[in-house]
Amino acid sequence: MTSEGRTMGAQGTVFDIGYRSYGGPREGRNRSRLAIYKDGLRGALGLGRGGRAKILPWFFIILLGGIGLVFALFAGLAYQLAGSGAADALNLPSHSDFNGIASIIFFVFAAVCAPELLCPDRREGVINLYLVRPITGTDYVLSRWLAFFTVMLGVAWLPQTVLLIGLAMGDSDPVAYLRVNWLDVPRYLAAGAAFAAYTTSLAMLVASFTTRRAYASVFLVGLFVISTPFTTALAMELDDSSAGRWISMFNLSNIPVHLNDLIFGEVSDVTRPAPARQFPPSVLVAWYFLWTVAPVAILWRRYRRLTP
Questions:
Q1: Rounded to an integer, what distance in angstroms lies between the CA atom of residue 132 and that of residue 29?
Q2: How many CB atoms lie within 10 A of CB 116?
Q3: 12 Rama class: left (phi>0) / alpha (psi -120 to 50) / beta
Q4: pLDDT score, position 199
Q5: Which DSSP category does 171 fall into?
Q6: pTM flag (> 0.70)
Q7: Which long-range contacts (CB under 8 A, 24 or more apart) does 27-35 make?
Q8: Measured in whole angstroms, how far is the alpha carbon of residue 157 from the centre of its chain?
Q9: Would you give the end-to-end CA distance of the chain in angstroms?
Q10: Which of 174, 196, 221 is nearest to 64 (CA)?
Q11: How large is the C-alpha radius of gyration of the chain?
């Protein structure tokens, strides 16, 4: 070192500005997973952000709740005018019909909101901060999946609960109505969970392939909307042949509706013309689980080896 360098080194000063090591409790990976889960909930619903981020998710939530309320009002009016059982006699939409009727809104909601949980983190490089040890790619993607699954559960159960309350209050004897129809509650909870798991898995998988939310949303909407007329028309051309039934199975909008029909023991108007309905229940259930579990497995495989 030169004499000039030694002179500059001797002039250096160390300032104590109060840095301290962290002395609080260390809550481990579960605390980190919970933080990512909560952030996913807030991101999907636009909480903590500007008004524009809240418009689309809350529009669909209010729309679904409004549909449940309208169904309940019509059923209540029928009860008032024609007595108990009038809703069934007039074939008004019930719990078993609701998921099929509102399924396209579920899918569009998932297409619009699910990319919000994955795309921005990858585009802006925030995921590298999440993946600092001890958080792993599996922790991250599982927390995100559970966050959106929770949102979808609320979206699926809210309008059915509104419909149940409306039907019960519209009846002349609400307690008797609930006593007779109590099985509708576990049924619509199970059917709603099936819809939530299916839409969450597909939407999160598609969102994992792009950093642009718009691309993921457009692809998902196209996937759900276009598959319906395409498979329906092709299956009708093939009549009730085995090929026609299998083509009908690729109607992605109908896959969870078939399971909904099995849970309620009724065939909805949405799946009534579908040739796939002729398959045994075991095939329909296995097909549903294939389209729900396989996307989760692919999603996990894409994220499990990610490192900062």
A1: 11
A2: 23
A3: beta
A4: 93
A5: S
A6: yes
A7: 28/134, 29/134, 29/135, 29/139, 32/134, 32/135, 32/139, 33/135, 33/139, 33/142, 33/143, 34/143
A8: 12
A9: 38
A10: 196
A11: 26
Residue with tokens 């519209």: 170
Q: Letter for the amino acid at 205?
A: L
36-71 pLDDT, tens per residue?
Answer: 999 999 988 888 888 888 888 899 899 988 888 888
Are 255 and 292 within 8 A, CB to CB? no
| Token reading at 85 | 């059982």
Residue 246 dihedral angles phi and psi, to the nearest 5°: -70, -35
- 131 near 308, Cβ under 8 Å? yes
47, 57, 71, 138 from 296: Cα distances, Å: 26, 23, 34, 11
Question: pLDDT tens, 120-155?
Answer: 888 888 888 877 767 888 899 999 999 999 999 999
Ranges of residues in the chain whose predicted pLDDT is under 50: 1, 5
The closest of 267, 92, 280, 263 to 183, measured between CA atoms, is 263
- Say whether 189 sits in a helix, a strand or coil: helix
CB half-sphere exposure, 81, CA atoms < 13 A: 10
Which tokens hold the place of 268? 């909805």
CA 101 to chain centre: 17
Place of tokens 């969450």: 200
Which is nearest to 114 in space by CA: 41, 190, 222, 61?
A: 41
Task: Give dist(CA 39, CA 116) in Å, integer.
Answer: 11
- CB distance 247 to 279 below 8 Å: no
Do 284 and 264 contact (CB within 8 A), yes or no?
no
pLDDT value at position 145? 95
**Cα–Cα separations (whole angstroms), residue 94 to 10, 79, 107, 167, 188:** 84, 14, 20, 9, 10
Structure tokens of 192?
Answer: 């709603």
For 189-221, b/e burial (b = at least 16 CB within 10 A) is: bebbbbbbbbbbbbbbbbbbebbebeebbebbb
Residue 88: CB atoms within 10 A of its CB come to: 11
